[in-house]
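User: I'm writing a short report section on ligand binding and want a predicted complex to refer to. Could you take this sequence and pyridoxal-5'-phosphate and write out the structure as tokens? A short remark afterwards would be nice.
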Amino acid sequence: MAVSKTVAADIVKEAIAAGVTIVGENYVQEAREKFKALVQYPLSWHFIGHLQSNKAKYAVRLFDLIHTVDSLKLALELDKQAAKVDKVQQILVQVNISGEDTKSGIPADEAPRLISEISRMENIALKGLMTMPPYFYQPEKVRPFFAALRKLRDQIEQTQPNVSLSELSMGMTGDFEAAIREGATLVRIGTAIFGERQ
Ligand SMILES: *Cc1c(COP(=O)(O)O)cnc(C)c1O
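Assistant: Sure. The structure tokens for the complex follow:
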């Protein structure tokens, strides 16, 4: 996925010409504007920022996959808003795999319960897990965190046979190779495609 936050629509068009088919945005308002400018392209739009419940109604209208669901409150609101537009909203659950206070995401030990609740929601389709590990200068040091997300996924699939978590959204410009080695199915790449952000 090409992370296009802060990147102008005209530049995103160049990336599309080069083969990009999935774009990731962090801010609902920015995405709404870009969506209008790029509506003629067959893009898949993903949301990767922190989503406030009061923006859920816009998010379900724009995004094919929301990576950052980390509370029951947000999941319930997405379910409700998706029902209103007759949509089944695809989502990932964001896990705070390192347990750092500064990171968003649900703590790993609370993820199974949240997932069990979400799996009962009619207008939500849970596709997998997402994480943002701590930053390390040496990407190999991040690998245990990616492995931990994969193991959590395996464990949840074993204990909740009705749940299938085929997508693992992990890895960015600095560490996507390590993430892929640990089973990432979606890597979120901004800087390596568009250059440094302002
Ligand atoms: C900005 C962002 C990225 C992309 O980061 P790069 O290091 O520029 O590749 C990936 N994931 C999330 C959640 C982001 O906010």
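A remark for your report: The mean pLDDT is 96. The pocket of pyridoxal-5'-phosphate is lined by residues 3, 5, 26, 48, 132, 172-174, 188-192 (CB under 6 Å).
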